[in-house]
Model the fold of this input.
Amino acid sequence: MKRKGKWITGIAALTVGLLGGCDTNELIAEDVTEVRIAESVDFGRFHEHDVITYNELADVKVFAGMIRNAEQQPGIVNMATPEYDVEVQYQDETVDRYYVWLGELGMPTSIMDVNDTHTVYLVPADVTDELIRLLEHE
Done:
């Protein structure tokens, strides 16, 4: 999956309200066994076509780092259509799904749990750089 054109970053699309925080699920990064990623179609459905599966330890660690290093942002958000749908499977066979807006090199990435579309998390620039290298390698 090659990056084509300039991606809309979550920061540019992020509208942070001044309302108080809402209930959120903690993003969990332990025991990831497999990650599936596809270019997103829209909110509410996982794009099942052209899915790339990562199950090598080095690749899975990049996505686990994305989840582990994500920091919740204050307020309620209004985001553009996601760039990627990411499905994370854990050792106990539970599955979490995230929407991802990939930042440019040296910029943060935004992620959102599909079960909490009012909260966004920012991932540091160094993790964005690892994600870009991994996705361009495909």
